[in-house]
Programmed cell death protein 2 (Cercophora newfieldiana), 428 residues
Amino acid sequence: MAPYDSDSSEGEDNDFTETNVLLGYASADANGEEISRLGGRPDWIDPKNPPSSALARCNVCKDMLVLLLQLNAELPDRFPGHERRLYIFSCRRKSCRRKEGSTRVIRGVRISPDAPPAGSKENKPAKEAPPAPKASSQGIGEALFGVKPAAASIPRANPFATSSSPAAAVNPFAPKTAQPAANPFSAPQQQQQPAPEPASPEPDAAKDLPKTFAETLSLNNPQPHGPPPPAEPWPEESAQPEPYPVRWLSDAEYETLEPVTMPNLPAQKMEIDTSDAGGSAGGKEDKEVFESSMDATFQKFADRVGENPDQCIRYEFAGQPLLYSKTDKVGALLHVAGEGNVKVTTSGSKGFPRCGNCGAGRVFEVQLAPHAIEELEIDEDGLDGMDWGTVIIGVCEKDCQQRGVVAGEAGYVEEWAGVQWEELTAKR
Ligand SMILES: [Zn+2]
Ligand SMILES: [Zn+2]
């Protein structure tokens, strides 16, 4: 799947092998990035139409959560006409740590009226797409983290900008900013919607419609079915917990790994000591590696992250998350015995739970890496900060829209967040 696995055994002369995982790096400098960042307060796709605040409350203490990550997750090839953003939230209270529901994720989506319908050929996810060549990789990186369309239209000093702009021009879906501006309906529709009216016409309308396959499927879904509860307004900012400082994800590049010098050795311990691998990682990762040296899954995690120690997020839609543990609750759910892999989509009792909005399967999209904690807590003293190892996000593979939200309007759907907590002590 990832190219480095097959390439590494051939003993090529390449210094580094590139994987399909896009890494995001944080900086205090926005560098033109306007959306993707750690910390701050959420910028909703439609600021006039935020999600219900109920989606951003801690399920443990019911307090408002704070933003860890806001990501521009548009995938114009896979979901043309979809504006997409992911928002990962976490509870500030120490008493909520290690408790389910203290970390949540919202997927914001606005689907253009011109977008091809879900399930059409163009919209079908390419399951095993070959590794993207360099040029288009650049484009994906830009779409995800970096260059905004406004910026893209202005030639910059970046030598890659010119090479990628012809592709962007050919792609009819690329100029995404044109969509909201060109869409004459989005604003009027906003006003037409009677927001304060508690009883919306949705229940009647839903009765008149035949059930789709997805809706029928979702009847078997344990999550609540039917019209969503009335949206809860957001409290004043002064009544919300203090946000983390903004750290822009202004730099993104595909993960590169050092060539494997000693392939197929079952024990990976020696790799930690090689002079180059993770040489700039600082002491923390190394220390953790030794403390948990019996845990091969953790060691693989530490080795892999240690090769690019400043990574804050790892992104690959429908790819493989890097597990911090395969024995905790999240690891047990996602890990497939004998494969060394995780289920990338819902299947039976394994893999991500199905989408609670449409019943489709979920796939991996992004995970937070430990260095994100250092960036988020850069202003904080002490060692009593967040203590997760990684936060893994699974999203609807169809990028469905919130029920009752029409084309051209922004909707918000809760997705699946799995937290793998830092191990307090090495296992055995
Ligand atoms: Zn809480
Ligand atoms: Zn869905």
